């Protein structure tokens, strides 16, 4: 970039930042905004008065810090059935309980919502039960590994055919997928679980997985899929097949005149 271009000031595709700070949330929000729009550039080392202040002696360290922040603080939600293309991204920075609620609400904005009628009364119905979505995300937060501060974030990805939640850390020693699905609980972060229980975000330890499996199946969806790796665990909740077929053609209208979310939507949520 030339001096003349810098003197031209900021615009809808260019922002200046004096430097990195301990709180990288503000410039990461700019990254997300550019990713959601038509793209753009962030130029570090330029003050608000357009003077060039530079990035200090450790330029390569600064570049690594920027790359690491983007990689570790932002996680994609994507259309289609794989991660070849990102449509929408979100990052949330707030107390962890608020991040959970923000993530839940964001997913609800993207999935289909229809209606059922009981006599003259109408009830809005999401394709995936909201309580199951909340339980799934809360479990990921409570049971993830926090040992390594630079560990991968929890990622929440919404595809045309499924909701995917990946939590770093894998299962604790002695735990298996079958034990977990049958209600056995071995909590990795007991203090965090106790805090969430106090806030009524979780109930009895060990009941959450069985409950959201039951609720998902009661909604007419297939049983959630659990995938285990040594350093992570993933849960896939598959959306109704009819929504996948319509979404691929861009024709999903929902079951009513309420929210229609069957188009190829997605977003980038948060690190917990």
Structural class: alpha+beta
Domains, number: 2
Task: Give the amount of beta strand, in percent.
Answer: 15-25%
Number of strands: 8
Strand order within the widest beta sheet: 5-6-8-7
CATH architecture of the largest domain, by name, is: 2-Layer Sandwich
- How far the N terminus sits from the C terminus, by CA atoms, comes to 36 Å
Helix count from the secondary structure assignment: 9
Nearest-integer average pLDDT: 76
Main sheet characteristics: 4 strands, antiparallel
The CATH class of the largest domain is identified as: Alpha Beta
And the CATH topology of the largest domain?
Answer: Heat Shock Protein 90
Write down the secondary-structure element order.
HEHEHHEEHEEHHHEEH
> What proportion of the residues is helical, as a percent range?
25-40%
Assign an overall shape.
globular
**What's the alpha carbon Rg, rounded to whole Å?**
21 Å
pLDDT < 50 stretches? 243-272
Keywords for this entry:
four-stranded antiparallel beta sheet, 16% strand, 272 residues, 2 domains, disordered C terminus, two-stranded parallel sheet
Task: Describe what you observe in this structure.
The chain has 272 residues and is of the alpha+beta class. It folds into 2 domains: 3-73, no CATH class; 96-249, 2-Layer Sandwich (Heat Shock Protein 90), CATH 3.30.565.60. It contains 9 helices and 8 strands. The strands form 3 sheets. A 4-stranded antiparallel beta sheet has the order 5-6-8-7, covered by helices on one side. The protein has a two-stranded parallel ribbon with strand order 1-2. β7 (225-229) and β8 (232-238) form a beta hairpin. The model is unreliable at 243-272 (pLDDT under 50).
